[in-house]
Design a protein that fits this description.
This protein is an alpha+beta fold. The chain has four domains: 43 residues, no CATH class; 91 residues, Pdz3 Domain, CATH 2.30.42; 222 residues, 2-enoyl-CoA Hydratase, Chain A, domain 1; 104 residues, no CATH class. The protein has 20 helices and 21 strands. Strands 3, 4, 5, 6, 7 and 8 form a six-stranded antiparallel β-sheet that branches. Strands 10-11-12-15-16-21 form a six-stranded mixed β-sheet, sandwiched between helices. Strands 1, 13, 14, 17 and 18 form a five-stranded antiparallel β-sheet that branches. α8 packs parallel to α9, α13 packs across α18 and α18 packs antiparallel against α19. The N and C termini lie far apart (96 Å).
Length: 544
């Protein structure tokens, strides 16, 4: 009797065990799977189901990891233009861009004719100590030839970078040398500067060029300010043109240096990110210095945080052209294999409440990608009246009108200078021929140019060398047909570009920037503002 009852209940026991097993399995899969794919067959998990089906039933063998690697960027691109996936092999490089240093050999190079050419050698760095000099060509790395199609920027960086104190053997071919010489370089920590120029524009006005917002930018700024203060600093220009951004924390620190206590610098807020305000603490040492910020269409993200904070607090004057318009905050999230995503989790807002993120659509948004080109074609770079704002009006602390929805519009507009631009000049610049000529000219005349010592002496020397004509002859031999009328019209621009690159090759970014700023209309406009004592905007509406 007992055995028969047990036999009758056995199917029920088995069914209960199966259901309990499924429930337990589902619970653990849902709550403890981490970043691993969950292939439970539910309607809400189509992507996981698809990968499972492909892996299980597709006609050919599929590398599932490779498939996922290719799918990740596409999925994130459907969200917004700035959520990105970074593979494990690219994470280190991505992080190095904004770190204070990286481990390497200490050279700046360019790739020409499938060969690494050493452009500059960092003073007292590993390469200089080993005997590498500017003008050398690297033809082998660790006794293996390194020339030809394999020579790309990515591959070159991969081979030259490495852990501190490791060694790399370089085969070098000096300028006009016929025999390769070999040196062994012990890699070391190479500092990365985020401030590329610091100098006095005149007896009272200091200039600082910030090219990115990295983890060391604020300490660098304090050093630059101290250096300028020793030279009677009374007015300050901070140049953020071409600065695509970086760490938000660095931008907040820098804005704080110039603002009185309890001023809102920026706030950020998202669907799952409660509003977070960043306020000035009143400890900045330069709260009262007349200040001008320079921006252009390539000033983005952290550059817009700084310029927005200064503008909305009426703390200084913004000069240039409308900035890029990136107001989305990305949070880094890592996976177990070392890869990571930078996911947009919030928007940031300037003190007046502006979100300066320009409009975008989900998915592949060609209008967003082509925005800068569209601005150029619409005439925005040349006329202030062509600026189109997509956002509503806001007001600064003193009641001036500012706009959101697409970058920071400057208080004073400076159009792009197109005087002297011809199709010949454009092709010479875009083709890279000017850079190639400047590099070869530098190599041929390195001893003489180095002896001259400073950019003023180098400039005076080069203007006597008929440098534009020499370039035109070189370009003609390398595929750019000589156009004498166009060359005459573009002579000033050609000479400026060529001389600037030779100055850069011989000296550094600081000298290069000083040379270019001599006749820069945006810098000139900043100087006008200081002469008029108008660096602090008054309570009047701006014309936009």
């Amino acid at each position: 009797m007992y055995r028969n009852k047990t036999n009758r209940l056995m199917p029920l026991f088995m069914a209960i065990c199966v259901v309990v097993g499924i429930l337990i399995g589902t619970f653990y899969a849902n709550h403890f799977s981490g970043n691993r794919l969950n292939i439970i067959n539910t309607s809400g998990n189509k992507l996981n189901n698809l990968l499972h089906i492909i892996d299980d039933q597709y006609v050919d063998t599929v590398n599932m990891n490779d498939l996922v690697e290719k799918a990740m960027p596409q999925i994130l691109s459907e969200l917004d233009p700035h959520s990105v996936y970074i593979s494990s092999k690219d994470v280190q490089s991505a992080n190095d861009d904004l770190s204070s240093s990286f481990s390497g050999v200490g050279i700046e190079f360019t790739i020409r004719q499938d060969t690494i050419h050493v452009q500059n050698v960092i003073s007292n760095g590993p390469a200089e100590k080993a005997g590498v000099i500017a003008g050398d060509k690297i033809v082998s790395i660790d006794d293996k030839p390194f020339v030809g199609k394999i020579v790309t920027t990515t591959e070159s960086m991969r081979r030259l970078k490495g852990p501190k104190d490791t060694k790399v053997k370089l085969g070098l071919l000096g300028y006009k040398a016929k025999k390769v010489r070999y040196v062994t370089v012990t890699r070391g920590e190479i500092p990365q500067k985020s401030i590329s120029a610091t100098y006095m524009l005149d007896s009272k006005t200091g200039y600082i060029k910030i090219k990115k917002f990295a983890e060391n930018t604020y300490p660098e700024l304090l050093i630059s300010l101290a250096q300028l203060s020793q030279n009677n600093l009374q007015n300050l220009v901070i140049d953020l043109r071409g600065n695509l951004g970086g760490y938000m924390a660095s931008a907040v620190q820098i804005a704080n240096e110039f603002l009185p206590k309890n001023r809102l610098i920026v706030y950020m807020e998202g669907r799952r990110s409660p509003r977070q305000d960043f306020m000035s603490d009143g400890k900045g040492s330069y709260q009262h210095i007349p200040l001008v910020i320079l921006i252009d269409e390539a000033s983005a993200s952290s550059s817009e945080i700084v310029s927005g904070a200064i503008q909305d607090n009426d703390r200084g004057t913004i000069i240039g052209r409308r900035s890029f318009g990136k107001g989305l905050v990305q949070k880094p999230l890592s996976f177990r294999d070392g890869s990571m995503i930078r996911l947009t989790t919030a928007r940031y807002y300037t003190p007046s409440g502006r979100c300066i993120q320009k409009p975008y659509s989900s998915g592949a948004d060609k209008d967003y990608e082509d925005d800068l080109l569209n601005r150029y074609q619409s005439g925005e770079y040349f006329s202030q009246d062509s600026i189109k704002h997509s956002g509503k009006k806001y007001h600064t602390k003193n009641g001036r009108i500012v706009y959101g929805g697409g970058g920071i519009t400057p208080d004073i507009f400076v159009p792009e200078d197109t005087l002297g631009i011809t199709s010949y000049y454009k092709e010479a610049a875009i083709s890279g021929l000017i850079l190639q000529f400047a590099f070869e000219y530098t190599d041929e005349n390195r001893a003489k140019l180095t002896e001259l010592g400073n950019y003023n002496a180098i400039t005076k020397h080069l203007t006597k060398q008929n440098i534009v004509d020499k370039f035109a002859t070189y370009a003609d031999k390398n595929g750019l047909k000589r156009r004498n009328l166009m060359i005459k019209k573009s002579h000033k621009l050609l000479e400026r570009y060529i001389v600037s690159r030779i100055v850069y090759n011989i000296l550094d970014e600081n000298a290069w920037t000083q040379y270019l700023n001599q006749d820069d209309p945006t810098v000139s406009k900043a100087m006008d503002i200081f002469r008029k004592n108008a660096a602090f905007p008054k309570n009047t509406d701006r014309k936009n």
